[in-house]
Amino acid sequence: MGIRKLKPTTPGQRHKVIGAFDKITASTPEKSLVVGKKSTGGRNNTGKMTMRYIGGGHKQKYRIIDFKRNKDGIPATVKSIEYDPNRTSRIALLYYADGAKSYIIAPNGLEVGQTVVSGSEAAPEVGNTLPMANIPVGTIIHNIELRPGQGAKLVRSAGAFAQLTSKEGDYAIIKMPSGETRKILAACKATIGSVGNSDHGLEKSGKAGRSRWLGRRPHNRGVVMNPVDHPMGGGEGRASGGHPRSRNGLYAKGLKTRAPKKHSSKYIIERRKK
Questions:
Q1: pTM for the whole thing?
Q2: Which of 105, 134, 150, 228 is the most exposed place for a label (fewest CB within 10 A)?
Q3: How many CA atoms lie within 13 A of 67 on its CB side?
Q4: pLDDT tens figures, 133-158
Q5: Please, are residues 107 and 196 in contact by the beta-carbon 8 Å criterion?
Q6: Quick one: residue 12, left, alpha or beta (phi over 0 = left, psi -120 to 50 = alpha)?
Q7: Residues 91, 84: contact at Cβ < 8 Å?
Q8: Which among 191, 176, 215 has a CA at the least distance from the CA of 92?
Q9: How many domains does the structure of the chain reveal?
Q10: φ, ψ of residue 109 in degrees (nearest 5)
Q11: Residue 228 backbone zone (phi > 0: left; psi -120 to 50: alpha; other: beta)
Q12: CATH for 245
């Protein structure tokens, strides 16, 4: 999966760097695994705007991704690698031996025609999902569950990977992409390999219009607002705005926002790097 830098034929193309679609093998999604997706424009059920800077954007359909991988022992063949507008990674369409179909997040190195399988008996190979108790120490993993059977919650975006560093009793010790080291129950499943489309971080939109296609409306800074709208607003001329803070007065630099008595704190061995 590479990237393409375009020739500067227009101002919008000058700095544009987009992902290459050379690994994508199908242009239309599997109809049985697609549902409609409603755009809210940042409004709640009464029509009041509760999230700013959201609206417009291209119409998208949601692809149903199998994050649980609970069809244990049934081999599945990779039919195609597809684009998904709802996530940074690519998705892979699986055809199971029993006739079922499902989408999974495509790991790096997964090819069309390859066979993947899930379950405790599965080999620790790219695309296979198995409990962390059965994964060798030092393996690169993604799509990690937080509770057994819940479905993958961690390490799902393009290019992300975690590492299984050790095991202690019922727990596996995982080094997260953020640098955090934490315990997760070894009965939780994880998928072998790193998430594909690792060049996503090198992409540049090139123009404001591409943000509008993604449903992002123009975002204005607190410094340029009036005092009634933001704590950093007001002042004569171009005032600096004082101490950086959010619209509701919380400091934006250095204030700890994690709850001090959060239940999961006891599972964190080393905090993420600042």
A1: 0.91
A2: 228
A3: 18
A4: 999 999 999 999 999 999 999 999 99
A5: yes
A6: alpha
A7: yes
A8: 191
A9: 2
A10: 95, -5
A11: alpha
A12: 4.10.950.10
